[in-house]
Amino acid sequence: MSNSLVKNKSFDFAVKVVRTYKHLSKEKKEFVLSKQFLRSGTSVGANIRESQNAQSKADFIHKLSISQKECDETIYWLELLYETDFLDAKRYEELHGEATEILKILRSIIITTKNNMKKNKQLIIHQLITNNSITHNS
């Protein structure tokens, strides 16, 4: 999965989160849970954006890991809002499905990046050992 895909999906999701927050605060007069939902739901995309300017692969993974945690927290708030009758089934299922998809993409990117880092580290170690043995044998 490409980073631009998750960036676009998380932005579209954040727009829906803001619109849902507006609905909850104006129509349902719910301010506490919906504020938590707004904060975590918009943080997902913000941290994905930050990851694009990471200073290292480790920083990239760190930013996406924060985004992953925020996404999981957003799912929690969605479930709570739904179970307490603040969200209807249609809106809940749409948002829950999108958040779950983003969470899976983030997990995949993080795992792939970590695996690639391990492979690169092993390759560098192998090259160092090979170069060192050539130097000693010459």
What this model shows, in words?
With 138 residues, the protein is mainly α. It has one domain (3-111): 23S rRNA-intervening sequence (de novo design (two linked rop proteins), Up-down Bundle). Helices cover 87% and strands 0% of the residues. The protein is built from 4 helices and no strands. Helix 3 (57-83) runs antiparallel to helix 4. The protein is elongated, with a radius of gyration of 21 Å.
User: Main beta sheet: strand number and arrangement?
Assistant: none
CATH homologous superfamily - what is it? 23S rRNA-intervening sequence
Strand content: under 5%
| CATH architecture title | Up-down Bundle
Head-to-tail CA distance between termini: 46 Å
Strand count: 0
Shape: elongated
Radius of gyration from the alpha-carbon trace, in angstroms: 21 Å
What structural class do helix, strand and pairing data support? mainly alpha
Helix content: over 70%
Number of domains: 1
Unreliably modeled segments: none
Order of helices and strands: HHHH
Which fold name fills CATH's third level, the topology?
Answer: de novo design (two linked rop proteins)
Number of helices: 4
Q: Please, what is the average pLDDT?
A: 92
The CATH class assignment is Mainly Alpha
Outline of the structure:
With 138 residues, the protein is mainly α.
Which keywords apply here?
4 helices; 138 residues; mainly alpha
